[in-house]
Design goal:
Blueprint lengths: L1 E2 L10 E2 L5 H6 L11 H10 L15 H18 L7 H14 L6 E5 L5 E5 L5 H16 L2 H5 L1 E3 L8 E3 L12 H21 L1
Length: 199
Amino acid sequence: MALGTSTAAQAYELRFDTGRICLDLLATTHPVERLGSPEVLRAWITGSGLVPPGTSLAHADPSWPAAFRELRGCLGPLVRGRPAPGSASWDRALSRVNDLARAAPPAPCAVPGDDGALVRCLDAPPGLAALLAAVARDAVDLLTDPVARASLRQCEGDNCPIVYVDTSRGRRRRWCSSEVCGNRERVARHRRRAALTRT
């Protein structure tokens, strides 16, 4: 599922199809840097489900995207590589993720909605540390869950670096998104077949 951003924020759509919030953050580098402004980061935070729809994030300032990009930089080697304790860069990345995970994540509460059904909201606008903690905790959960780690896949799309959790039946999912990379592959295959029939 994709969430479109405003034209002022970013020309590319933000994507939320990896199966984990921490992997969705990792995907914000492709095909270009997507977290270049507070406006885009606000859209990503809401679209990822870190906060309920309608949560005020007006207090997010230009330091926020840099902090999320730093966390994203730590996630890359931890998710994409094999555990490499003793490697200085791997150890630093793991230490930083663990440090960020120590903060309390945003505190949810249940309140009656317009129709009387209970809806989730936050008791106050979330701070940067709380939001980073939520993503870091998701990464810790992923990295320490052998079943989830075994389900991690690298997209088979041309030049696509996106890593996702394969929860498909039979674990046969090949692309980060059937609509994006899968569709590109089907179009390329069709063009190859058409070119062969013309020759």
